[in-house]
Amino acid sequence: MALIGALEAKATERWTWAVRTDQVAVLVTKARPALVRQSPDGRGLLIGEVWNRDGGPVRDLAPASSNSSPVSQATALCAQAWGRYVAMLADANGLAIFRDPSGGLEALTWRRNGLMVVSSSLPRDLASVLAPPLSLDWDRIACHLASPASLSGPLALQGLSAVAPGQLLRQVEGRETRVGLWAPAGFVEPTSEPLHLVQGQLVRLVDRVVGAWAADRGPVLAEVSGGLDSAIVATALARRDDLEVVQWLNYYARGAESDERVFA
Hints:
- This protein is α+β, with helices and mostly antiparallel strands.
- Helices cover 24% and strands 29% of the residues.
- The protein is built from six helices and 15 strands.
- It starts with a helix and ends in a 15-residue tail after the last strand.
């Protein structure tokens, strides 16, 4: 494979191979490399940070059963785990890419010399080998100008696409399909438990999530904006004895709408 050979020559300084087979190859940076796990059957990859519902790390991607599709695999992963990750799933019909619902890890895709490339960025030092054939998508630019809210949608570039959070991108016999697999309504269950018990469960869940994100990262810088979200995170951090918050931060600018120091 000429492309892999060219990458081999270019990727010696800043990059290293995490996985390399006849079907898939994964490059990660040598400094702070992304965690890459391969399923025991070799048909799937999980890239990034993933935790289960109890806040423990997910160390392996379960092997696909003989009749499980990438849709069912991604749906199960979405229901049982969370984090910032991209999963590469496969069955007899082809390869699929699933991006976690939070969108914490980017998943840009394009084709180069007959191969499908998936990347969290466009690395400048590999551009001569990997760069997609880019051109401006003027119809999409017009949509962005007419409706700025659409900026979070499809990219205004031809030759490059982004997998949306919670979306599964499939390649079957050269055809591309996209399926959205996550919606809040699918994860909200009715309950008959007393309100105070449900409130306690929510508090403990938030504490586990914040603790998992902050653990094993060294000293923590925490922003307190003055709003509700950062106040919840700050409270969860302050309750943990095993985490050190070395600095609390607040950003503000001139004007009442940009200065919430009183609330912070």
